[in-house]
Design brief:
CATH superfamily: Hydantoin permease
Radius of gyration: 21 Å
Number of helices: 19
CATH class: Mainly Alpha
Oligomer: single chain
Strand content: under 5%
Distance between the termini: 33 Å
Structural class: mainly alpha
Shape: globular
Helix content: 55-70%
CATH topology: Hydantoin permease
Order of helices and strands: HHHHHHHHHHHHHHHHHHH
Largest sheet: none
Length: 477
């Protein structure tokens, strides 16, 4: 998509992309999505998934279903990008109204800023662990330097914008792809199939909990950014190609990494426990010293690849939420927040896994509700968006559409009542509907199934399907 054009700061923000700038084919969507999801963090998800108390085969099925399904949601929402040539959270105005869309935009901003902060923190911790094993330090000075380097790469790409991201992601894809294969070969001897096969099976409730966790950790973490890259494609591009290349590019690396991560974590209880505190750094304990520096490169680049897409989309979400600044400035603002959040996680945050799960599930509920609404809205439309009216409160899409906003709020309230986060003290108020709904309360068998995410997704989708007349009226206006 970038061609041979000179690399410059992208000036497009919430703008509709001109015909002259729309280029490329759906196949090129593979690069940003693969580069953003090839992170070795995918290996650690094997440990996270087994933490639900399920067997290898149960975890494998949950991974295949959760990853493929959630990234297919991204693919379907990406169709809106090529139809409207605008960012995801601007196109969301068609469902929520021009100013009514500020609520889901704010939620989207929180999610993407949270993700970029988590990824930057993990890259910082991983670098410190590698340096410590090499005897080069690893304490506070190393963490500070690592944070500066990772943040500089992420913020620079976010400020430069689309062309820089597409070029960076292509390089990240090749480098991390090759080095990840080398990592797998080096540690393959640490897989002990007898130990993996001996893992006891869990209950259906535990399996559902792992499925929802994987959905929120992968595709549902990207749905609010799914159209940000397809918007540069010509409108004549194949919708099937947009869906297919988005879902394939995003899911192929996580699927492979998850399977191998399950084998490693299932083979070693000590490694499984260590990953909870340092998800990337713990993986270095299996490596020979000579590969530690290449591992640091693949770990940092993989995490930066995800953080770069997040900071770009978080800047767009911030603009859609109402901040009136140029897009590069919005990305810079998010970069400052990302650095402050990383400092807290790295130096004051304590154990990582509990806080991470709490973050995913809590924001996963309102994002799932928005995703259900957006999916149904895209499905109901058969024509391109009236682009200029996405900026006009008096236009066909309206100003504040109370129905969809109320739907997201109700679905979120119900969803939070059916999830629990006991590992994160500040989220123990959730799960208030588990007892009234006869699901055993916060200590019952359904407590960690996190049904609230699924409920919010299904409720948002099903109720929005009933609004076909509204969509028909908009398209006929």
């Amino acid at each position: 998509m970038t061609g041979s054009r000179k690399l410059e700061v992208e000036t497009n923000g919430l703008d509709v992309i001109d015909d002259a700038e729309r280029r490329g084919t759906p196949r090129q969507l593979f690069w940003p999505w693969f580069g953003a999801n090839v992170s070795v963090l995918g290996l650690s998800y094997g440990s996270f998934t087994l933490g639900f108390g399920i067997s290898f085969w149960q975890a494998l099925i949950a991974g295949v279903v959760g990853i493929l399904f959630s990234f297919l949601l991204c693919g379907f929402i990406a169709i809106a990008g090529k139809r409207g040539s605008a960012p995801t959270m601007l196109l969301s105005r068609a469902a929520f109204g021009v100013r009514g869309n500020r609520l889901p935009s704010a939620i989207s901003w929180l999610l993407t800023v949270g993700w970029e902060t988590v990824l930057t923190a993990l890259a910082t911790l991983a670098t410190a662990t590698v340096f410590e094993r090499l005897g080069w330090g690893g304490g506070t000075p190393t963490k500070v330097v690592a944070l500066v380097v990772v943040a500089a790469l992420t913020v620079a790409a976010g400020v430069l914008g689309f062309d820089a991201i597409m070029r960076l992601q292509t390089w990240i894809t090749w480098i991390t792809g090759v080095l990840t294969v080398v990592y797998v070969v080096l540690v393959a001897g640490d897989v002990h199939w007898d130990a993996v096969r001996a893992l006891p099976s869990g209950s259906p409730q535990q399996w559902v909990g792992s499925l929802v966790f994987l959905m929120t950790g992968f595709g549902l973490g990207w749905v609010n950014a799914a159209a940000d890259y397809s918007r540069y494609l010509p409108r004549s591009s194949s919708s099937r190609g947009v869906v297919g290349w988005t879902a394939f590019g995003a899911s192929v690396a996580p699927l492979v990494l998850l399977v191998f991560g399950l084998l490693l974590a299932g083979s070693s209880p000590d490694l499984n426990k260590a990953i909870a505190a340092d998800p990337i750094g713990a993986l270095t304990t299996l490596l020979p010293l000579w590969f530690l520096v290449p591992f640091a490169i693949v770990a940092v680049l993989g995490l930066v690849g995800g953080a770069v897409l997040d900071i770009y989309s978080s800047g767009l979400a911030l603009l859609s939420a109402g901040l009136r600044v140029p897009r590069p400035v919005a990305a810079l603002v998010d970069g400052v927040i990302m650095v402050l959040g990383t400092v807290y996680i790295v130096f004051f945050g304590g154990e990582f896994l509990g806080q991470f799960q709490g973050f995913l599930v809590t924001l996963g509920v309102p994002v799932a509700a928005w995703c259900g609404v957006m999916l149904a809205d895209v499905l109901l439309r058969h024509r391109d968006y009236a682009e200029q009216e996405l900026f006009d409160p008096a236009g066909r899409y309206g100003d504040v559409r109370v129905g969809p906003i109320a739907l997201v709020l109700v679905a979120t309230a119900l969803g939070w009542g059916l999830v629990t986060n006991t590992s994160a003290d500040w989220l123990k108020w959730q799960g208030y509907l588990l007892e009234p709904f006869g699901l055993g309360g916060r200590d019952g068998s359904w407590a960690f199934a996190n049904l609230g995410v699924l409920l919010a997704l299904v409720l948002g989708f099903a109720v929005t399907l009933l609004t076909r007349p509204r969509v028909r009226a908009q398209e006929a206006a």
